[in-house]
Amino acid sequence: MNPMMMNLVWLLGGALLGYGIFVMIGFLRKAGAQRKAETILISAREEAERIKKDASLASKEEVYKAKESFARETQESSQELKNFEKRLLKREDALDHKADTLQRRERYIENLEKNLETQNKETEARKSELNRLIEEEKKTLYNVAALNKEEATKMLLGKLEGELQVEMAGLINKVKEQTKEAAEVEAKRIITMAIQRCAANHTVESVVSAIDLPNEEMKGRIIGREGRNIRAFEKVTGIDVIVDDTPGVIVIYGFDCVRREIARRAMEKLIVDGRIHPGRIEEVVENTRKEVDEVIQETGKQVCYEVGLHNINPKLVPVLGRLKFRTSYGQNVLQHSVEVAHLTASMAAELGLDANLAKRCGLLHDIGKAVDQESEGTHPVLGADLARRFGERPEVIDAIEGHHADMKPDFIYTVLVTAADAISASRPGARRESLDKYVKRLERLESIANGYTGVEHAYAIQAGRELRVIVNASKMDDNQATITCRNIAKDIEKELKYPGEIKVTLIRETRIIEYAR
Question: 138 with 156: CB under 8 angstroms?
Answer without folding.
Answer: no
